[in-house]
């Protein structure tokens, strides 16, 4: 059964910002862009740099280390030097809280 972990209250989560969560060794970055919420593995597929140190653009995040870009919705690698996608997670709003589905 799917289990959801609370990240923060939606009204404290400004558009264009990120939150980090860690579950065991798994690090996840949660992103709000406008009314959309995204959650990705917080690890660039190029050399493992944290994506949460990167830069948000419309619908994508750019790694701060070497500039690889990833689609926020799908995790698809959009620009070299990364060519492997990153894992995405289901994120939802529930009773005013932002929650991420964890395995
Ligand atoms: S570590 Fe992210 S682009 Fe190199």
Q: In sequence order, what are the helices and strands, one letter per element?
A: EEEEEEEEEE
The CATH homologous superfamily is named: Rieske [2Fe-2S] iron-sulphur domain
Helix content: under 10%
Residue stretches low in confidence (pLDDT < 50, at least 5 long) are: none
* Sequence of strands across the biggest β-sheet: 5-6-7-8
What do we call the CATH topology? Rieske Iron-sulfur Protein
Domains counted in the coordinates: how many? 1
What structural class do helix, strand and pairing data support? mainly beta
The number of distinct helices, counting runs of at least 4 residues, comes to: 0
- Shape field: globular
**Ends: how far apart?**
9 Å
The major sheet is characterized as: 4 strands, antiparallel
> How much beta, percentage-wise?
over 45%
Using DSSP, what is the number of strands? 10
Structural commentary:
The protein has 103 residues and is mainly β. The protein has a single domain (13-90), classed as Rieske Iron-sulfur Protein. The protein has no helices and ten strands. A four-stranded antiparallel β-sheet has the order 5-6-7-8, with no helix packed on it. A three-stranded antiparallel β-sheet has the order 1-10-9, with no helix packed on it. Strand 7 (69-71) and strand 8 form a beta hairpin. The radius of gyration is 13 Å and the shape is globular. The model has no long low-confidence stretch (mean pLDDT 95). It binds FE2/S2 (inorganic) cluster. FE2/S2 (inorganic) cluster binds next to loops.
